[in-house]
Amino acid sequence: MGRRTGDSVQTADRTTEMAPGAVREASLALNRYRLTRRLGAGAFGVVWLAHDERLDRMVAVKRIELRDDQVAARAEREALAAARLSHPAIVALHEAGRDNEAIHLVSELVLGPTLADLLDAGALSDRDVLRIGVALSEALGHAHERGVVHRDVKPANVIVPERPAGEAGIAKLTDFGVAAIAGDDGLTRTGDVVGTLAYMAPEQAEGLPVTGAADLYALALVLYEALSGVNPVRAQGAAATARRVGTRLPALARFRPDLPAELCAALDRALLPSAAERGTLAELRDELHRAGSSAGTDVGHVDPPDARPPAGERGAARSLPRDESTAPSARLLAAASATALTGTALALLPTATSVTAGAGALVAVVVGLTVAALPRLAWLAAVGCLTGLLAVSGLAGVALLVLSAAAPVPLLLPRSGALWSAPAGGALAALAAVPLAWPAAAGQAAAPLRRAALGALGVWWILLAEQIAGRSLLLGPLPGTPDAALWKGSAGNAAGDVVWPLIASGAPLLTLPWAAAALVLPLLVRGRRLSFDVVGVTAWTAGLAAATTAVAAGIAWPDGPPGVHGATAGPLIGALVALAAAGARPSRRRPDLP
Predict the structure, then answer these.
(1) What gap in Å lies between CA 83 and CA 76, rounded to an integer?
(2) Candidates 3.40.50.2300, 3.40.50.300, 3.30.200.20, 2.30.180.10; correct CATH number of 3-108?
(3) Which CATH number fits domain 115-304: 3.50.50.60, 3.90.550.10, 1.10.510.10, 3.90.780.10?
(4) Which residues are marked as active site?
(5) What is the pLDDT of residues 501-557, one digit of tens each?
(6) Which residues, at least 6 apart from 159, have a Cβ–Cβ distance to it below 8 Å?
(7) Model's pTM, two decimal places?
(8) What is the tens place of the pLDDT at every residue in 17-35?
């Protein structure tokens, strides 16, 4: 065990502040366990790192103060449930005991982040998720065979160990405080509604007797969220979430059409409102195992089974993954984009302050490598330095436009630092006279929100780039703008004469069709049958061109609506990009289709 968020275990690497009157470090629990460091606290107890002085080992001790009967009952339930279980994917309970003030649950010490932490960080590949799903399926199957239904399966109750003992233990289920235990009616009364609403099976939410089907539903919902980035039950507020419990959920393929159809069908089935129609854990486990062999590994926190180094060679306490966990391909994209952008910015400097070509190239490469290592932090630092350099070089207006392009990126892509320079691809496509090809490139991102964000950011960068360059890339420079020399040196003039008129004209509305085009592209071009893909991409091409032209016709340009450069060639190039990308994913095609 480790630190707890809410009432779920995770790792902590520092002592948590204690409330006045709380147990102090070095206290001895059950006359055996020396409490050495507080790891965290939840609603029902405090978790301590402790030393077992009898067996000379480190353990986790959960201390639950005897405040009332409900707390005592929960502690008893957790101890009884965990005592029945012994599985590599379940946190093991060593001992339970009580004194006059508290109940103590002594468990194995598991160092590692929770699944919730990893999902928030975007640190898991599809293969990671499926392997974790297999381990949890087997853990829940083990529990059900012994009469225990967990009733609170959720990402925060799953730890991903830093040093798993084997494939079966790459994830560990914890917190059996609300488990239903066969033969113990006093702890599992009909009518109880316990658990977490956003992961609760419909029958559980209604207070009906629960079976293993409730855990199957919750596990499927956890995996659905991990693969799609969306929990379709969670809403704004408990009441709105409650209204969604028991409804038919959107098919997983709507969010991830690139996943195998059989895997999507298995998860969709496990999420059916009727418990009798969900299938079994064994069936879901088998489908997860089959799909895992060919699943994507673009981002990976869990080491492949054939590449995990011995325990002694791994770090003793690896911190939670940040952007440094991104795949090499993403790092390469980040480095290349940052290098190109830095070089372009340096080329804008006036002659009096410009650097030599060699020095500028070296600076650009250094920035690119730094961004590859620390995508978000280095990107923000590079943007700050470049805008500052432009400002002190007499280009404060240009610095404002660069800042206007950069500002929305972290807001729309908060967990995708390696993609923060990617919208420059829209400007590059525009320079090649095919700006409308960019939504096809943006549509290759796996997560729906990332696709939409990249599509929108690409057009915004193009609109600003053509103001700086003074040439037509998509709509052309804003008519009526004062001479460039008057605004490029003044941030105030740039804001009043360029940025605000551009926004007021309605040109940013182009972000809507471009975001929508990137979002829906994988739904139309699925990479399973060429004839279907051709039909889909044809409709996509026509729709993108028509929507872009229609929005442009409503833009309030001073001398009339602007034309759209590359309105024909761009979508066609985009169509080829989409078909080529779909054809490069043979492992995602159904084997029974030609």
Answers:
(1) 10
(2) 3.30.200.20
(3) 1.10.510.10
(4) 152
(5) 999 999 999 999 999 999 999 888 877 678 888 898 899 999 999 999 999 999 988
(6) 1, 2, 9, 10, 11, 91, 110, 112, 113, 114, 115, 171, 172, 174
(7) 0.52
(8) 334 335 555 688 899 999 9
